[in-house]
Amino acid sequence: MADESSHPAVELDETVHQRVRLGVLAILVEADRANFTYLRDTLGVTDGNLSAHLNVLVNAGLVQLDKRFVEGRPRTWVRATPKGRTTFRAEVEALDRLVTRYRASAKV
Amino acid sequence: MADESSHPAVELDETVHQRVRLGVLAILVEADRANFTYLRDTLGVTDGNLSAHLNVLVNAGLVQLDKRFVEGRPRTWVRATPKGRTTFRAEVEALDRLVTRYRASAKV
After folding, report:
1. Which of A26, A69, A72, A88 minimizes the number of CB atoms within 10 Å of its CB?
2. Would the pTM count as exceeding 0.90?
């Protein structure tokens, strides 16, 4: 049985753990920056869904948006902040503990 | 940059990925069964919150509830179904790919 004080799932942060937001940060940590369209298409979400999740990430200080006009059309670039990178790393470590623990006890 | 067709975050299943539900399944795969109170205390959630998440898991066929009276008091045992174990394993594999990919590209 788990130690009641330290189950890895307790360490997961809903802000970062949510699937689309986790995907956004994973891409940004890997790619430095990405544009809105690339994130939308890679993660398979709608414009509205991605916008809502980016707002959560911006409000939490985890990503920054940079809106520019390119050939007269607006283009939004997204970057992870240093806090975003740190928070993503903590999430990956919590996920890694969960995966490792599962592997150690696997009965399936 | 990511291969647009196969980002690991796309493979995550919201039913299982949600933090509390992931924790429930992780505990059940490890422990075979757990009672409601144990899950609630280990995951640090309220009765209402845990009930809502268990309903989602029951409706998806991932866990089964077994309500019994023990010394006149109701007690709810929770077990993962075979489908619950398979689905949890797929989630762990997707998380492992995400963690591995991050480690391979880590710039933080």
Report:
1. A72
2. no
Cβ within 8 Å of residue B93, ≥6 positions away: none
Condensed to tens digits (0 to 9), the pLDDT of residues A12-71 reads 888 999 999 999 999 999 888 999 999 999 999 999 999 999 999 999 999 999 998 888
Rounded-to-integer distance, Cα B57 and Cα A57, Å: 27
**Sequence ranges of the domains in chain B:** 11-107
pLDDT in tens, B55-91: 999 999 999 999 988 888 889 999 999 999 999 999 9
A29 Cβ under 8 Å from any chain B Cβ: yes
Neighboring chain B residues of A85 at a CB cutoff of 8 Å: 107-108
Q: Which residue has the tokens 């291969």?
A: B3
Complex-level ipTM = 0.79
Q: How confident is the model at residue B5 (pLDDT cuts 50, 70, 90)?
A: low
Backbone angles phi, psi at B67, to 5 degrees: -95, 125
Size of interface A-B (CB pairs under 8 A): 124
3-state secondary structure of B80: strand
Q: With a CB-CB cutoff of 8 Å, which residues 65-84 of chain A face chain B?
A: none
| Fold classified for A11-107 | Arc Repressor Mutant, subunit A (1.10.10)
Q: Do A42 and B95 touch (CB under 8 A)?
A: no
